[in-house]
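Open question from group meeting: does this chain pack into something compact, or does most of it stay loose? Before anyone orders reagents, we agreed to write out a predicted structure and look at it together. Recording both the input and the output here so the notebook holds the full record.
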Amino acid sequence: MIKTTAHKIYIALIFIFMYAPIATLVVLSFNASKTRAKWGGFTTKWYTQLFSNSEIMQALYNTLLIALLSAVFATLIGTIAALSIQGMKKKSRAVLMSITNIPMLNAEIVTGISLMLMFVFVGRLMGASTSLNFFTMLISHITFCLPYVILQVLPKLQQMDPSIPEAARDLGCTPLRAFFKVELPEILPGVLTGMIMAFTMSLDDFVISYFTTGNGFQTLPIRIYGMTKKTATPKMYALATIIFFVILFLLILSNLTDKSGEGKDAKPNTNLVKVED
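Structure tokens returned:
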């Protein structure tokens, strides 16, 4: 009994330590007073001021554009890479997976600096006046999002019965049609989860974005960093609150997608019936 109570208290303290700062941030974003020392009443004016700030809205647009494009391209490339890795021999697959995991295990500052140096070097070789721009940041985000997509799609491919696509091809499907008719529906939960994770990782990235962005192009994390050099304002609390709840929603959506995929795996596959449609 004492051991169980101590265990619950310990877990409660961990959660309080983790989420108390976020709860404080959310509360302060609705505080009418600019000072953090007293409660001035409930208000939403900081959110109104936030959305009326053109610089922040431009940074938000840049962030969403980069996150969406990097998630789409990373999902396409990562799915193709996962299919290729799955078709390799066991030893080659293990070596390639170790290489694929390096961007996740590597320190972000090392990845950011190395990408910046590469872009500057290539830009100088091509005679470009500006080496860093929107496209360098997009390429960087695709690069560090790829492993997350591969790690979500590959387990779904390993769970799939390899005889299913073979049976589809035996029934007259081309390899491409067999993929879209049979394989893709089987691995779709992993593809969607990988895309959501890529979008989430790109959305709140700061370190790599900071080193690979060009002049005049800012994402929200970079904009927030620039704002903190002066002083923390209630508008920043509102902005951070919105970012937190967006990422929380995406993580919940990712988990729900994963669970729906597990439920689908338990059902018999009926896609082969539709091959001849």
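Observations to bring back to the group:
The CA atoms of residues 86 and 228 lie 46 Å apart.
The radius of gyration is 23 Å.
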